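Chain X:
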Amino acid sequence: MLKSCLKFLLVAALAGLALAAGAQTQAPAASAPGAQQPPTVSASARRLYERSKGQLLQIRTLLKTQDSQASVGSGFLVSDDGHIVTNYHVISQFALEPDSYRLRYATTDGQGGALELLDFDARRDLALLRAVGDGLKGRGALGFRPQSQPLAKGERIYSMGNPHDVAFAVVEGNYNGLVERSFDPLIYYAGGINPGMSGGPVLDEDGRVVGVNVSTLLFAQQVSFLVPGEFAEGLVRRSLGAKPIHTAAWARLRDQLTRYQDELVTRFLSQPWESANNDRYRLPVPRQDFMRCWGRGTSADTKGLDFERSQCRMDHALFVSGSLQTGWLDMSHEAYDGSKLGPLRFARQYSQSFRNERLGAADKARTAPYCKEQFVDRDGLPLRAVVCLRAYRKLDGLHDLSVLVTTVDSSTQGALGRFDAKGVSFDNALKLAAHYLEGFAWTNSSKAK
């Protein structure tokens, strides 16, 4: 019965989606913003920079008809024939709007030239480029550190790039292992990565690539993240002989995101729900294998309402463009006890909490949400459920799912839950909505009463 209700809700929501063409907004400068300043570098850093500066590049996205730059990042040579690795988000404007943008490189010695895009891996935020002509041939290439030689925590590593379009630079830092509870592996780098360094190489003491600059943690000191070098090496191996991409790569991007969300949903659905330790309701709380959860509560606050809240979210999102990120799960619940308020005052505050939920609006990347509401019975626990879908305008078959649930069994107690999945197929939206609603039930003690 539950799955039939959900299918009706989602099919009805999907039927209401009107996919309309929309222009893509211009992305901001590449890489996460930050204000970290590079520390004084050592003799090792200077030595490595001198050895590798011939393979270090600045990557610029320019308007097609003029030299005004739309974004700036970094990259590095991986072949003697002018192949270059950088971040996908550095070149995403060109990948999605090649009629409006073009790519150019600049070397540390002031040379420059045009670039073409061969392939990208949006999931790992990587791209493979090649210089047009012979301008970069014969300059050598950086090699990758073998996976059979893993780094130890605390080892010195060296990030290179062109921060803030000021000058080429090297930043010395430490390897601190992989980020915990990340769906895909990311290296935690204790060093400052600034905007403009995205896509630059991070080298070990022997000058071998161990990672690629990708982002930094806002409002933190020396907390940055790298894509492990093995993924860049894999992209090079797969696509070194690929033909250049000359048309908008929306279909290629959609296929990559579709494969990613299939894996994400499969892994998420395989995990059992954890307990929220609520006396009355069994509320769905995910395992924290690749999500982080926070909680807070107010006991007998000034309004007389006992309140507990939990929120869980994936830290990692996939970059599509400057105006759109996708590919993550987010969920929360709130449990209320208004026995001190009485039924009328509790109903007013409980209803207001439900109305305060925002489900989005139409924008250039997605349609407005189309929602359906229905009452659902979960093993004797009555629920009011709202299921919404927003379709991606240029990523056919992918949607944002929102499920809003509230219990309606008591005049002075209740629970409100919300689940969001960004960039999932219709079939996976159905599975996720069913899985989420199945996480609600009575606690054993409440059902016995």
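Chain Y:
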Amino acid sequence: MKNPVPKTSFGLMSKVYFKIFPEVNRQLIYWKNKAEEIPNQELRKQALASINTKKFHCQGGAVYSLLAGKRWRDSIRFIIAYQTISDYLDNLCDRSSSLDPIDFQLLHQSMYDALSPKQKVKNYYRLRQEQEDGGYLIELVQTCQNYLKTLPELEVIQPYLLRLEEFYADLQVHKHVTDEERLPRLEGWFQDKGRDWSNLAWYEFSASSGSTLGIFCLVSYAMDGKTSPELAKAVFEGYFPYVQGLHILLDYFIDQQEDKKEGDLNFCFYYPSLDQMKNRLLYFIRQSNQHVQQLPHKHFHEMVHQGLVGLYLADPKVKVIERGQNVTRALLHASGWSAKFFHLNVKTYNMLFK
């Protein structure tokens, strides 16, 4: 039975609502049940909160399962497990009593191990007070490892997987330390690791590192047996930094008021002006479109970054952002008809299922 990659916005949304979301929900129910069994109260609280409040991360990432052909369910199961690790660790670091970068590095070793089937699992909580999770994090890691073991050409994509994971883990460590250390660490990291992207500001490179989309794209293609060195390189260059950067900058854009109130880090705050921020978001849209042209199923990848614009700007939080509606109109116009379709579709979905 063939599973063609959708080429139209209508085809994509149909598969998302009737095929992808139901399987995502099934997987999240499984992990939620596991999280409820975590013995330690704080670990249980953060595991459940990451699933309850960040479900849309899993829904968005699971769209890439449409590239996995007959193995689309396997792709979703990998994506949900990996994204759940990401969201869980983000919660642990955000609300941690620890500000120790070594502790954060050890926690995020789990994401490296999840992409490395030959790695042995560890006690990732060794440097923190909370310890007993009933095997929750280890089971998430091993679930990812088990699916990657089935890929005959894992070695072709693994260098790119691990490079994307390294960027992600470095960001999480640097952004969660003390306020005094945070900016010097992030700026120094960009000078060290971001030399190939000198057209970006340090906060744009940081945002680009904070997405898991490139990993999901690589694994899904590999599950369909479509891996080659040329494709792996093209996916990495197609997604990093622009598609991933657009993804996370939009996430920060809609969270501005919330982050200002809570005193949280937000990369959008570092733009010199609102106009500069809008112009750079438009630049990321143009570059995203240009860089996915080299990929197979380019129409799918175009719809993904157009969908990101439509999805995030449909969030009610946009209404309370200074000139939020102005920026929304400009970004939707630049992204084209598909972004407007996704925008309206998501707003309608949110109203119906709020």
